[in-house]
From TrEMBL:
<protein>
    <submittedName>
        <fullName>Helix-turn-helix domain-containing protein</fullName>
    </submittedName>
</protein>
<dbReference type="InterPro" id="IPR001387">
    <property type="entry name" value="Cro/C1-type_HTH"/>
</dbReference>
<dbReference type="InterPro" id="IPR039060">
    <property type="entry name" value="Antitox_HigA"/>
</dbReference>
<dbReference type="InterPro" id="IPR010982">
    <property type="entry name" value="Lambda_DNA-bd_dom_sf"/>
</dbReference>
<dbReference type="Pfam" id="PF01381">
    <property type="entry name" value="HTH_3"/>
</dbReference>
<feature type="domain" description="HTH cro/C1-type">
    <location>
        <begin position="65"/>
        <end position="118"/>
    </location>
</feature>
<dbReference type="GO" id="GO:0006355">
    <property type="term" value="P:regulation of DNA-templated transcription"/>
</dbReference>
<dbReference type="GO" id="GO:0001046">
    <property type="term" value="F:core promoter sequence-specific DNA binding"/>
</dbReference>
Length: 125
């Protein structure tokens, strides 16, 4: 499956690149291979497009999480899978618990949320 990789200029380009990138999710290619390079390039293009067109809310990690959930079509149930429990997800979303370093790393890796957005000033006590 070859796709001409190019700068993402509009939503159609973004959606096509996103679909091509997601094909690799179940079987991530080895780095340094042609497929691995393609996977990495698509990820970089998507990240740049998202940074330019969908800036993350600043200063509140919960808003960054909510923004990612909305953009990626994820639910609180999906968040509970990442954080380990429904109650933990609820506490985070309601500003009753701050994210741990491990949770920040996991959210950043699995949901592609920039770490900087997740370490902002939380309102959790």
């Amino acid at each position: 499956m070859t796709m001409h990789i190019h700068i993402l200029r509009d939503e159609a380009d973004y959606q096509a690149a996103k679909a091509a990138y997601e094909v690799y999710f179940d079987d991530e290619p080895e780095p340094g291979t042609e497929a691995g390079d393609r996977f990495e390039l698509l990820g970089l293009l998507l990240a740049k497009y998202e940074e330019d067109h969908f800036p993350m809310p600043a200063d509140d990690p919960v808003e960054a999480i909510r923004f990612a959930m909305e953009r990626q079509g994820l639910s609180q149930s999906d968040l509970s899978e990442v954080l380990g429990s429904r109650s933990r997800a609820s506490e985070v979303l309601n500003h009753r618990r701050a994210l741990s370093v491990a949770q920040i790393r996991k959210l950043s890796r699995e949901w592609r949320i920039p770490v900087q957005a997740l370490i902002g000033q939380s309102q959790a006590a």
